[in-house]
Design goal:
Blueprint (H helix, E strand, L loop, with lengths): L1 H61 L3 H10 L6 H14 L4 E9 L25 E12 L1 H12 L6 E9 L5 E12 L1 H16 L1
Antiparallel strand pairs: 1-2, 2-4, 3-4
């Protein structure tokens, strides 16, 4: 009887040792693996969601017509031509039967910018194309005109196919009840940093 009890107690002790040394650590490892699997599945869901949103954005870009893409390139070019912009300004004026008394390029690109009206332009110091999406180029022009012509000119600039942001406008009396209006306007190009991002998106578009 006592011998049988001793054997039973020994078996209980051995079972306890096996439970503590083998079964419990194995269960802990299983729980750890299960937790990692849950985290992995969650990350997979996040990546899938991001990919779906990116694919939707790519599809939206692909749906833009060639004409609209050309219009966007005119509105925000990635290569800037100062002479062409001066011709654009002159064309706007001559289209309204106005003749500029002065028209000049006053600065821009990677140099200093005085434009404080746009978030895309550094407010002081030098323009940093690495942290801003748009590079400003500034022009000034003067023209003698009547008040109604001034309103028409402002409307034409606002609805022009080419982006011209008015930074400053000074109006002074001129001869024969006319006005002399002096404009400071900015034209923009897409910064190289932004073009690198666009190139990366186009690469991804090719991959998917």
């Amino acid at each position: 009887m006592s011998h049988s009890l001793f054997i039973q107690l020994g078996m209980v002790v051995v079972a306890g040792i096996i439970t503590v040394m083998y079964i419990m650590p194995t269960m802990e490892e299983i729980r750890t693996v299960q937790d990692k699997i849950a985290v992995y599945e969650k990350e997979i869901e996040n990546v899938t969601s991001v990919n779906q949103k990116l694919q939707a954005s790519v599809s939206q870009v692909q749906s833009v017509s060639p004409d609209n893409k050309q219009a966007l390139d005119r509105y925000l070019p990635n290569q800037f031509d100062v002479v062409s912009v001066m011709k654009e300004i002159n064309t706007i004026l001559t289209g309204l039967n106005l003749e500029p008394t002065a028209l000049e390029f006053t600065g821009g690109g990677s140099g200093e910018s005085n434009n404080s009206n746009s978030e895309a332009v550094a407010t002081s110091g030098s323009f940093d194309s690495a942290t801003h999406a748009l590079v400003p180029y500034t022009f000034t022009f003067s023209v003698d005109l009547e008040y109604d012509e001034l309103k028409q000119l402002l409307s034409t600039i606002e609805t022009n196919d080419y982006l011209l942001e008015i930074n400053k406008l000074e109006v002074a009396p001129a001869e024969d009840d006319d006005l002399t209006a002096t404009f400071e306007v900015s034209r923009y190009e897409i910064a190289q940093k932004a073009m690198e991002v666009i190139s990366d998106e186009e690469f991804y578009e090719d991959e998917i």
